[in-house]
Amino acid sequence: MQKNIFQDYANKESCIIVGRCADSILRYKKDVLNICIYAPFEARLHNCVTELGMDEKSAVEKIKKVDEARSAHRKKYSPDCKSEFDDRNLMIDSSYF
Could you give the 3-state DSSP secondary structure of residue 91? Predict the structure, then answer.
C-alpha cells in the first residue's frame, strides 16, 4: 500500500518523501532526486552524549541497534540494494552542518 501511495504522489505532483525506502520504490522514475543525509558514527555518538545527555556506553549500544534496524528494514524492503549508495544520487554528511 505504501509503495502505491508513493508512486501515486510522485506521478501526480512534486513531493518530498522521507525514508521508507522511497529511493528504491521510485528508482525507475527519471525525474527523481534521491538524497541520503547521514552522519559518521563519531558525530552521532557526540550528539547522543552532548545533546541528549546519554552516557557513552548506552549511546554506542543505541546507535548500533538503530543502525541494525535500519539495515534490516532496507534489506527486507529493498533487497536489490547491495550498498548504502544504491538508488541514491546525493549523499550529504550532516556533521558538516
Answer: strand
Q: What is the pLDDT of residue 12?
A: 94
Burial 54-93 (b: 16+ CB within 10 A, else e): beeeebbeebeeeeeeeeeebeeebeebeeeeebbeeeee
pLDDT digits (tens, 9 = 90+) for 50-61: 999 999 999 999
Vertex 37 angle, CA 44 and 80, to 5°: 110
Tell me the pLDDT of the chain averaged across its residues: 92
Q: What are the contacts of 14-23 at 24+ separation with CB within 8 A?
A: 21/73, 21/74, 21/77, 21/78, 23/78, 23/87, 23/88
CA distance 9 to 28: 15
Report how far residue 73's alpha carbon sits from residue 12's, in angstroms, rounded to the nearest whole number: 27
Q: Does domain 2-96 have CATH number 3.40.50.300?
A: yes
pLDDT under 50: residue ranges of the chain = none
